[in-house]
Protein backbone atom coordinates (compact mmCIF):
# COMPACT_ATOMS: atom_id res chain seq x y z
CA UNK A 1 0.00 0.00 0.00
CA UNK A 2 1.38 3.39 -0.99
CA UNK A 3 0.34 6.54 0.83
CA UNK A 4 0.28 9.84 -1.07
CA UNK A 5 1.76 12.72 0.90
CA UNK A 6 -0.28 15.92 0.47
CA UNK A 7 0.80 19.50 1.11
CA UNK A 8 -1.72 22.23 0.33
CA UNK A 9 -3.53 19.94 -2.11
CA UNK A 10 -0.34 18.93 -3.99
CA UNK A 11 0.98 15.36 -4.02
CA UNK A 12 4.53 15.77 -2.77
CA UNK A 13 5.46 12.10 -2.82
CA UNK A 14 4.43 8.52 -2.31
CA UNK A 15 5.56 6.40 0.62
CA UNK A 16 5.41 2.62 0.87
CA UNK A 17 3.50 1.92 4.08
CA UNK A 18 5.19 -1.35 5.03
CA UNK A 19 6.21 -0.78 8.67
CA UNK A 20 9.64 0.66 7.83
CA UNK A 21 10.80 4.29 7.93
CA UNK A 22 8.22 5.20 10.61
CA UNK A 23 5.28 4.02 8.48
CA UNK A 24 2.34 1.86 9.53
CA UNK A 25 2.50 -1.69 8.21
CA UNK A 26 -0.35 -1.73 5.69
CA UNK A 27 0.96 -4.67 3.65
CA UNK A 28 -1.98 -6.56 2.20
CA UNK A 29 -2.90 -9.84 3.94
CA UNK A 30 -1.68 -11.59 0.79
CA UNK A 31 -0.80 -10.45 -2.74
CA UNK A 32 -4.10 -9.46 -4.39
CA UNK A 33 -5.62 -7.49 -7.23
CA UNK A 34 -9.13 -6.37 -8.11
CA UNK A 35 -10.27 -5.81 -4.51
CA UNK A 36 -12.76 -3.09 -3.66
CA UNK A 37 -12.55 -0.74 -0.67
CA UNK A 38 -14.68 1.71 1.26
CA UNK A 39 -13.81 4.24 3.93
CA UNK A 40 -15.90 4.30 7.09
CA UNK A 41 -15.67 6.37 10.25
CA UNK A 42 -13.71 3.54 11.91
CA UNK A 43 -11.22 2.81 9.14
CA UNK A 44 -10.89 1.28 5.69
CA UNK A 45 -12.61 -1.94 4.60
CA UNK A 46 -11.01 -4.06 1.85
CA UNK A 47 -13.35 -6.59 0.26
CA UNK A 48 -12.73 -9.56 -2.01
CA UNK A 49 -10.28 -9.61 -4.87
CA UNK A 50 -8.12 -12.08 -6.73
CA UNK A 51 -5.07 -13.89 -5.32
CA UNK A 52 -2.68 -16.40 -6.85
CA UNK A 53 -4.91 -19.21 -5.54
CA UNK A 54 -8.17 -17.78 -6.92
CA UNK A 55 -11.02 -15.46 -6.00
CA UNK A 56 -11.24 -14.02 -2.49
CA UNK A 57 -14.41 -13.36 -0.50
CA UNK A 58 -12.81 -12.10 2.73
CA UNK A 59 -13.35 -8.65 4.25
CA UNK A 60 -10.47 -6.97 6.08
CA UNK A 61 -10.32 -3.74 8.03
CA UNK A 62 -7.50 -1.31 8.76
CA UNK A 63 -8.88 0.49 11.83
CA UNK A 64 -8.23 4.09 12.79
CA UNK A 65 -6.45 4.61 16.10
CA UNK A 66 -7.65 7.00 18.78
CA UNK A 67 -4.61 9.25 18.15
CA UNK A 68 -5.07 12.83 16.95
CA UNK A 69 -4.91 12.75 13.95
CA UNK A 70 -5.99 9.10 13.64
CA UNK A 71 -3.54 6.59 12.20
CA UNK A 72 -4.50 3.39 10.39
CA UNK A 73 -3.51 0.08 11.98
CA UNK A 74 -2.61 -2.99 9.92
CA UNK A 75 -5.21 -5.14 8.19
CA UNK A 76 -7.26 -7.63 10.22
CA UNK A 77 -9.90 -10.01 8.92
CA UNK A 78 -13.45 -9.09 9.91
CA UNK A 79 -14.46 -12.48 11.30
CA UNK A 80 -17.78 -13.80 10.01
CA UNK A 81 -18.14 -11.10 7.34
CA UNK A 82 -16.92 -12.90 4.20
CA UNK A 83 -18.99 -12.32 1.07
CA UNK A 84 -21.59 -15.00 0.27
CA UNK A 85 -19.60 -15.66 -2.92
CA UNK A 86 -16.06 -14.49 -3.69
CA UNK A 87 -15.74 -11.48 -6.02
CA UNK A 88 -12.97 -9.71 -7.92
CA UNK A 89 -13.46 -6.47 -9.82
CA UNK A 90 -16.59 -5.59 -7.83
CA UNK A 91 -17.61 -2.03 -6.93
CA UNK A 92 -18.51 -0.99 -3.41
CA UNK A 93 -20.08 1.98 -1.65
CA UNK A 94 -21.09 2.80 1.89
CA UNK A 95 -24.44 4.60 1.90
CA UNK A 96 -25.85 5.47 5.30
CA UNK A 97 -25.87 2.30 7.38
CA UNK A 98 -25.38 -0.08 4.45
CA UNK A 99 -22.35 -1.38 2.61
CA UNK A 100 -23.10 -2.51 -0.95
CA UNK A 101 -20.81 -4.75 -3.03
CA UNK A 102 -22.01 -4.71 -6.62
CA UNK A 103 -21.23 -6.99 -9.54
CA UNK A 104 -17.70 -8.22 -10.09
CA UNK A 105 -16.34 -11.50 -11.37
CA UNK A 106 -17.49 -14.55 -9.41
CA UNK A 107 -16.73 -18.25 -9.90
CA UNK A 108 -19.09 -18.34 -12.93
CA UNK A 109 -17.90 -15.06 -14.51
CA UNK A 110 -19.33 -11.55 -14.42
CA UNK A 111 -22.17 -11.17 -11.94
CA UNK A 112 -25.22 -8.95 -11.56
CA UNK A 113 -25.46 -9.76 -7.83
CA UNK A 114 -25.52 -7.02 -5.23
CA UNK A 115 -24.67 -7.87 -1.62
CA UNK A 116 -25.70 -5.61 1.26
CA UNK A 117 -24.32 -5.55 4.80
CA UNK A 118 -25.81 -3.48 7.63
CA UNK A 119 -23.40 -1.16 9.42
CA UNK A 120 -23.72 0.52 12.82
CA UNK A 121 -21.31 3.20 14.02
CA UNK A 122 -18.89 2.49 11.16
CA UNK A 123 -18.70 -1.27 11.77
CA UNK A 124 -20.67 -4.28 10.51
CA UNK A 125 -23.78 -4.63 12.69
CA UNK A 126 -23.75 -7.68 14.98
CA UNK A 127 -26.32 -10.02 16.50
CA UNK A 128 -26.77 -10.94 20.18
CA UNK A 129 -23.78 -13.34 19.89
CA UNK A 130 -21.58 -10.50 18.60
CA UNK A 131 -21.41 -12.06 15.13
CA UNK A 132 -21.85 -9.88 12.02
CA UNK A 133 -25.36 -9.92 10.59
CA UNK A 134 -25.51 -11.87 7.32
CA UNK A 135 -25.11 -10.27 3.92
CA UNK A 136 -28.39 -9.76 2.09
CA UNK A 137 -29.33 -9.44 -1.57
CA UNK A 138 -31.15 -6.08 -1.74
CA UNK A 139 -31.66 -6.46 -5.51
CA UNK A 140 -29.54 -7.25 -8.54
CA UNK A 141 -28.00 -5.04 -11.21
CA UNK A 142 -29.89 -4.92 -14.54
CA UNK A 143 -27.02 -6.85 -16.16
CA UNK A 144 -23.69 -8.44 -15.14
CA UNK A 145 -20.97 -5.83 -14.64
CA UNK A 146 -17.34 -5.91 -13.50
CA UNK A 147 -14.61 -3.30 -13.08
CA UNK A 148 -17.08 -0.41 -12.95
CA UNK A 149 -16.82 2.83 -10.99
CA UNK A 150 -19.45 3.48 -8.35
CA UNK A 151 -20.58 6.26 -6.05
CA UNK A 152 -23.57 7.45 -4.06
CA UNK A 153 -25.41 10.75 -4.35
CA UNK A 154 -28.73 11.96 -3.00
CA UNK A 155 -29.48 8.57 -1.45
CA UNK A 156 -29.00 6.64 -4.72
CA UNK A 157 -26.34 4.20 -5.90
CA UNK A 158 -24.60 4.74 -9.24
CA UNK A 159 -22.51 2.32 -11.28
CA UNK A 160 -20.64 3.66 -14.29
CA UNK A 161 -19.20 1.74 -17.23
CA UNK A 162 -17.20 -1.40 -16.52
CA UNK A 163 -17.21 -4.59 -18.54
CA UNK A 164 -20.13 -6.89 -19.38
CA UNK A 165 -20.32 -10.69 -19.16
CA UNK A 166 -18.24 -11.00 -22.35
CA UNK A 167 -15.57 -8.60 -21.04
CA UNK A 168 -16.55 -5.77 -23.41
CA UNK A 169 -16.27 -2.20 -22.05
CA UNK A 170 -19.65 -0.57 -21.46
CA UNK A 171 -20.92 3.01 -21.73
CA UNK A 172 -24.15 2.38 -19.80
CA UNK A 173 -24.76 3.57 -16.27
CA UNK A 174 -27.02 2.01 -13.67
Show the helix and strand layout.
Elements: E1 2-7, E2 10-16, E3 32-33, E4 36-40, E5 43-51, E6 54-64, E7 72-77, E8 91-95, E9 98-102, E10 105-106, E11 109-110, E12 114-120, E13 123-124, E14 149-153, E15 156-160
Antiparallel strand pairs: 1-2, 3-5, 4-5, 5-6, 6-7, 8-9, 9-12, 10-11, 12-13, 14-15
Summary?
The protein has 174 residues and is mostly beta strands.
Question: How would you characterize the overall build of this protein?
Answer:
By secondary structure, the protein is mostly beta strands. Helix content is 0%, strand content 45%. It is globular and about 45 Å long. The protein has strands spanning 2-7, 10-16, 32-33, 36-40, 43-51, 54-64, 72-77, 91-95, 98-102, 105-106, 109-110, 114-120, 123-124, 149-153, 156-160. It has no helices and 15 strands. The strands form 5 sheets. Strands 3, 4, 5, 6 and 7 form a 5-stranded antiparallel beta sheet that branches. A 4-stranded antiparallel beta sheet has the order 8-9-12-13, with no helix packed on it. Strands 1-2 form a two-stranded antiparallel ribbon. The relative contact order is 0.14.
Amino acid sequence: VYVGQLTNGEITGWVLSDGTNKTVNLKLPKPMSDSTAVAASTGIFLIGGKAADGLVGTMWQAKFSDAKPPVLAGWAEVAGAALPEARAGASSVLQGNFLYVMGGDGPKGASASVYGLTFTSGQPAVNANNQPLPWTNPGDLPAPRSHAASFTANGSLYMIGGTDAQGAPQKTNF
